[in-house]
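User: quick one, fold this
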Amino acid sequence: MRLSEIGRLVWLNLVQNKFKVFLTSTGIIVGSATIMLVIAIGTGGKMEVAEQFKNLNAGSVDISYEYNGSGFTGGMPGGGMPGGSMPGGMPGGGMSGGGMPEGRAGGMGGGFSPFGGMENQMNTAKITLSQADADNLKESIPQIASATISYTTRQEAEGGSLEESASYTVAGVKANYADISNLEMAIGAFLTDDNDAYKERTCVLGYSVAKEMFDSVLDAYDSSVYIDNRSYIVSGVLMEMGTVASGISPDEAIFIPYETGIKYLTGKDVSPAITVVAEDVNDVESVMEQAALVLAESYGENVEFTISDAGSKMEAASKSNETLTLLLMAMAVIVFIVGGIGIMNVLFVSVKERTNEIGILKAIGCGQKDILTEFLLEASCISLVGAVLGVLVSLGITPIIESFSVRVELSLAGGALSLLFGVLTGTVFGFYPAFKASRLIPVVALNHE
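Assistant:
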């Protein structure tokens, strides 16, 4: 039998059983839609991670200290009085009081217990990192190309067309923060060393903040905004970034000189973070280890700093995205298997119903290959219909998924792969029923009731 004749038989069978074809392909529809969305969500997740960290230098390392106010009882770790509590006291330990050696502070800061031991109760002093620490790290570690320090706070701000003040992230930064974080200006200039040295009330607005306050970037430039009821001149507006730099979302932040913020907004009660950039990405691990040693020399070995690199953050975000993609992929495979089993069952029933037809085809000269080809084509066509409908379904529900703030990046490659998987599933699961049909004995098939 010619292939065109087999194709005509397949077409007639499909047209005469439209509803059955649709129900049979339901599993393929769901599987096809799922696999296309898995690829789209996975691609979107990767792009989201890349954009979130695109302004982070791969060699950057963030150093911070979180004070929890916890205390400890017993011998004096690192020796001495709490840093700064007495003349000569050093942060985190070291020499104290009368200059006694570490761990031999005598009776200072506590009395002898009735059991003859010295009992001491002390709280770890709060440590505030400074520009001096950043400079010390840069000077002590040759692999560091640059270093900066910054902090953030929430403050009420207003300006432009805002009818009332709103809460914004205000970041106190140094002049080199823009270069280290790869920030680009839409208009104007970033903060300067002079702005910081003279504690000038000037600021740089993130793109979203400028649009919210002034409706346009041009209107924001050289205007005044009020932060904590004090006026600041807008020296520039950043380009839209959509990213995170050193824990700060530039689009949603207001940047002011570091010392200006200390003077007018926060006082000394800040918890700044130091960001250093390694000259070579391969030196990041070494820089982190050496930074820990340098800080230990300054503050004592008992003080624990949080030291993290941009590469680890990107890797963690990527792994999280990959895990989600794998879970979705596993779900798509399961759905495809269920859909394939559905096709197999329907074809088995079809073979049973059409046994007489198979007997007639064999009686007029159709071989096993012709029967096998016919039923395989039917299975492939049913799965192709399901795959096409699945792609259309995925296009339809994409806006719904995006409404939940999930980034979906549809692609032609994803659609093609979805169609391929759909057709392949139908063909694989349809082979055995087709094979069974091709092996029927003509006499037995003709006598089947």
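User: anything notable?
Assistant: Confidence is low (pLDDT under 50) at residues 71-123.
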